Write a sequence for this structure.
């Protein structure tokens, strides 16, 4: 039996892309789900499809997980469903193209809230409950190779992902009661990739020159392939990955 069976997982970024594909992959293993994203209609559609197809329990919390209210609501819904076991924070915003000084305040908030503030708010809301779990809890943060590079046009995203990776290390150092690791999903054909291939602004040319060849050479994974890989990793006890950065296809 999968480690995920009959457990409840909070999944952010669940309305599209890897997050939506991951909802299917987790449901296939018998996990109940609390789906979060900013837009409610696609979450309601996902809930309907998942409950009919996999006979699991699904709750929906729409809104920005960077706010304390939404982060707490995700945890409360998971506890209501029963068997709250962890969070997978798949949400992210790229805003490709502009140099750092060209970004406006809303764009800055979009990127940093999705990766930085939301990852902290979710930990803040969930860790007290997860640390009480008999079998331990789980917190998976979505990372990126961008965390270790500097590239014009995605500089804020690079910095935000570096923050997220170091937040994982801090959480892992502070307690072993919650298994915390970063999952790097690889180069995946998502809305972010499409946005990068159409990037404008001071760094737009550099971004397009990097992202477009991956698409032209057929190097991009499908969202489903990357999601299934993580779900399979979680079939077994996830504790060996505590404090690590795990890359798609690594094991």
């Amino acid at each position: 039996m999968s480690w995920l069976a009959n457990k409840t997982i909070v999944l952010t970024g669940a309305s599209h892309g890897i997050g939506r594909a991951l909802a299917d992959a987790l449901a296939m293993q018998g996990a109940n789900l609390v789906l979060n994203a900013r837009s409610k209609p696609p979450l309601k559609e996902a809930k309907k499809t998942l409950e009919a197809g996999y006979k699991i329990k699904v709750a929906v919390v729409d809104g920005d997980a960077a706010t304390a209210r939404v982060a707490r609501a995700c945890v409360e819904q998971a506890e209501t469903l029963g068997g709250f076991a962890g969070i997978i924070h798949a949400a992210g915003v790229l805003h490709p193209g502009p140099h750092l000084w060209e970004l406006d305040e809303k764009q800055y908030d979009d990127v940093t809230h999705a990766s930085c503030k939301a990852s902290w708010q979710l930990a803040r809301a969930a860790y007290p409950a997860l640390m009480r779990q008999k079998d331990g809890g789980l917190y998976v943060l979505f990372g990126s190779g961008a965390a270790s590079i500097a590239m014009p046009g995605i500089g804020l995203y690079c910095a935000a992902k570096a923050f997220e990776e170091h937040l994982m290390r801090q959480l892992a150092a502070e307690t072993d009661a919650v298994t915390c690791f970063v999952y790097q999903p690889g180069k995946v054909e998502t809305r972010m990739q499409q946005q990068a291939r159409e990037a404008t602004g001071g760094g737009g040319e550099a971004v397009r020159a990097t992202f477009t060849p991956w698409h032209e050479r057929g190097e991009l994974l499908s969202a489903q392939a990357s999601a299934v890989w993580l779900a399979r990793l979680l079939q077994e006890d996830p504790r060996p990955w505590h404090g690590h950065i795990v890359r798609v296809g690594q094991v």
In short: The longest helix spans residues 105-130. The chain has a mean pLDDT of 96. The helical segments are 17-28, 40-54, 68-81, 105-130, 155-174, 191-197, 204-216, 223-233. The longest strand covers residues 178-184.
